[in-house]
Recover the amino acids of this structure.
């Protein structure tokens, strides 16, 4: 079951512009990933962050392992590239960390939700419980210095862009709204005009004529009665 689920997820994610995935030795349980930050407002915009994902044989009942190949200077990333993020922690509540079960891994999670959470974490660091204490302190006290280090990380990350791979841009991945032309809607519609009170039908006109004739007959009867009187 794990192989089938992972293969379906792989086929879906390879179509996404913000991630580049390769299977290690054609092993569906080992992925090489390139995370691409397409948000121009992000400190990490333009980076290609190479990482490894390893899946357990009982996936999705247990979480995958994730590790950056080039460690990033970030409060929630250990020096060896591992992440401190709730979604990758084993299912269930943890009284020691205070994490709720809803924040941790569950069989309902998927690779896509993990990767999106990681991208969100990059610009929304949790500094209250940092994996890299120095990075957490610098982010709070010397944000410009922190920004400079991150920008250097971004430039270095571009060395991992695979040969022949074309980096997507923000403009290329912007979803265009669907344009709909309603000019011929009523011409193509099968809706009858009389539903909207448009034109009177022949039947309606006949009813009006009958009502008019009835009124004339009543007036003639009244005149005859007056003459007899």
């Amino acid at each position: 079951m794990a192989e089938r689920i992972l293969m379906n997820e792989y086929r879906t994610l390879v179509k996404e512009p913000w991630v580049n995935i390769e299977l290690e030795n054609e092993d569906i349980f080992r992925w090489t990933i390139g995370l691409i930050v397409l948000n121009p407002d992000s400190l990490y915009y333009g980076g290609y962050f190479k990482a490894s994902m390893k899946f357990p044989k009982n996936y999705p009942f247990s979480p995958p392992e994730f590790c950056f190949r080039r460690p990033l200077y970030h409060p929630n990333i250990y020096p060896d590239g591992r992440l401190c993020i709730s979604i990758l922690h084993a299912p269930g509540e943890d009284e020691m960390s205070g994490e709720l079960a809803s924040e941790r891994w569950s069989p309902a999670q998927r690779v896509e939700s993990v990767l999106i959470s990681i991208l969100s974490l990059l610009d929304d660091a949790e500094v209250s419980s940092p994996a890299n204490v120095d990075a957490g302190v610098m982010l709070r006290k010397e944000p410009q210095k922190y920004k400079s280090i991150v920008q250097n990380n971004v430039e270095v990350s571009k060395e991992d862009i695979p040969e022949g791979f074309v980096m997507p841009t923000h403009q290329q991945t912007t979803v265009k709204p669907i344009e709909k032309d309603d000019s011929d809607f009523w011409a193509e519609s099968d809706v009858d005009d009389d539903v909207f009170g448009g034109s009177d039908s022949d039947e309606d006109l006949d009813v009006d004529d009958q009502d008019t004739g009835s009124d004339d007959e009543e007036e003639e009867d009244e005149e005859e009665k007056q003459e007899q009187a």
User: Anything to note?
Assistant: The longest strand covers residues 27-36.
